[in-house]
Amino acid sequence: MTHAFHPTTLREYDIRGVIGSTLGEADARAIGRGFGTRVRRAGGNRVSVGYDGRLSSPAMEAALVEGLRASGCDVVRIGLGPTPMLYYSVYALKCDGGIMITGSHNPPDYNGFKMMLGSAPFYGDDIRNIGELAAAGDWEDGAGGVESVDIKEQYVDRLLQNFDGQAFNIAWDAGNGAAGEILEMLVAKLPGKHHLLYTEIDGTFPNHHPDPTVEANLVDLKKVVADHQLDFGIAFDGDGDRIGAIDGKGRVVWGDQLLMVLSEAVLAAVPGGTIIADVKASQALFDHVAARGGKPLMWKTGHSLIKAKMREVDSPLAGEMSGHIFFAHDYYGFDDALYAAVRLIRAVSQLGGSLTRLRDAMPELVNTPEMRFQCSEERKFEVVKEVLARLKAAGAQIDETDGARVNTPDGWWLLRASNTQDVLVARAEANNEPALKRLMAEINAQLEASGVAPVEVDH
User: Fold this and answer.
1) Would the pLDDT of 420 be above 80?
2) Which of residues 334, 360, 386 is at a domain's end?
3) Cα(318)–Cα(297) distance, rounded to whole angstroms?
4) Of 61, 318, 404, 409, whose Cβ has the fewest other Cβ atoms within 10 Å?
5) How many domains is the chain partitioned into structurally?
6) What is the CA radius of gyration of the chain?
7) What is the pLDDT of residue 448?
8) How far is it, in rounded angstroms, from Cα 300 to Cα 48?
9) Quick check: is 10 in a domain?
């Protein structure tokens, strides 16, 4: 028996598709067979499985479990919850791997799979290999067992281990995502006063889209913080692995700015530690880390790539502009927005007790959000190569970690190919508005020179 996946579903960092169109239960079964085969051939046989609140998730979970058991793996079902709870279960329940069924922050009709083999992320060639095994029907056979384990209390207790933060008044927005129930359990054990929004898990996302990196999705959180004069607000994405925050004045504290706060606290405990951020992060973050004796390291965008780099350089903390925050200091090195929130409370306590004051002290730079330009899968990487060639010929100062990040007296701009969509991604940061306009003109000139329309695509 063989299986062919839709060509768009096997992605660089995870497996993802539209239910009933590019992804279905037969795919979930084949993923179970393939992943189970990889676990067996690596000498393991115990796999943890969790799922998010999407309407399609229970059926996909049942099919996945069927496939895993048919490959001879014993399955531990941890049920409905956030992605980081699944990652935690692999450690806590001594599993050989784990699979989370989640559509993350995508629209309601999407779903997908995030995986880890042993304690390492499963991505790139590993995901492509799932497709190869399916195409060849090269699967192990067996009849694995199954058990259900409720790990929620244990997970919440782990989130609060070593908690030394003060009491704050905080608004929380779970966005009707998979973190809702855990959030309710968590704040019941935290000091301070807590105002909860949208903790009911609902895969139709009736209140707003669960992506806290889009400012429009933080409107309700800002209102609660303002109405009740709270200290700050925290929001989560659909599967609880990305965090968003606002300060007491309702200003967004972006991913790289959160990392400025968190890194300062971590560097007090790990002097000289290497703090990793992706290429989209502000220069202010890298300067902040260096000024506090840390080693700033710019790395490629992508949660799996960041996790792998952390292990390589023994980094205690890493983060992305997209709100993935990874703590290896006193934790496991995976992206857990609930744990990042707890550590934010602890860091703010340690650094004077006011996120608003910490935000006030940050350099006032002007920057663009992430801009996306339509470009075909075949062409996007070629365009980046062409841009790099022209920049080098012109003697520009370039960092090639992930695409082209160009430093100029005005600031910096970035152009890279997305690993997950048929787009080029750009961002720019400058000291003032006229400088930002000049940087934008440079990006547009390079896009036009490669025949890409310099019009932002709204996603």
Assistant:
1) no
2) 360
3) 9
4) 409
5) 3
6) 22
7) 94
8) 28
9) no
pLDDT given for residue 422 in this prediction: 86
Q: Using CA atoms, how far apart are residues 367 and 427, in angstroms rounded to an integer?
A: 8
Q: Which residue has the tokens 């602890």?
A: 346
Do the Cβ atoms of 282 and 429 come closer than 8 Å?
yes
Domain that holds residue 388: 366-449
CATH number of the domain at 235, please: 3.40.120.10
Q: How far apart are CA 109 and CA 113, in angstroms?
A: 14
Q: Hey, what are 199's tokens?
A: 């903790």
C-alpha angle 216-433-302 in degrees, rounded to nearest 5: 50
> Which residues lie below 8 Å from residue 385, measured CB to CB, with a gap of 6+?
none
In a domain, 6, yes or no: no
Active site residues: 104
In this structure, are 301 and 221 located in the same domain? yes
Give the pLDDT confidence of 61-106 residue by residue, as tens digits: 999 999 999 999 999 999 999 999 999 999 999 999 999 999 988 8
Whole-number Å distance between alpha carbons of 171 and 256: 21
The two counts, helices (H) then strands (E), for the chain are 14, 22
Q: How far apart are CA 134 and CA 162, in angstroms?
A: 45
Do 313 and 246 lie in one domain? The reply is: yes
- 429 is a domain residue: yes
Q: In this structure, are residues 110 and 82 in contact, taking their beta carbons and an 8 Å threshold?
A: no
Contact indicator for 28, 20 with CB cutoff of 8 Å: no
Query: Percent of the chain scored above 90 by pLDDT?
Result: 92
How many residues does the structure list for the chain?
A: 459
Q: How is residue 163 written in tokens? A: 């908690």
CA separation, residue 101 to residues 18, 63, 316, 366 (Å)? 13, 11, 28, 38
The Cβ of residue 258 has, within 10 Å, a number of other Cβ atoms equal to 26
Cα separation, 168 vs 193, whole angstroms: 6
Both tokens of 425, joined, read: 């991604």
Let me know: does 52 contact 112? Beta carbons within 8 Å: no
* Beta carbons of 409 and 429 less than 8 angstroms apart: no
SS3 141: coil
Handedness of CA 187, 152, 177, 240 (dihedral sign): positive
Query: What is the C-alpha separation between 104 and 112, in angstroms, rounded?
Result: 8
Residue 49 lies in a domain: yes
Residue 421 to residue 39: CA distance in whole angstroms = 29
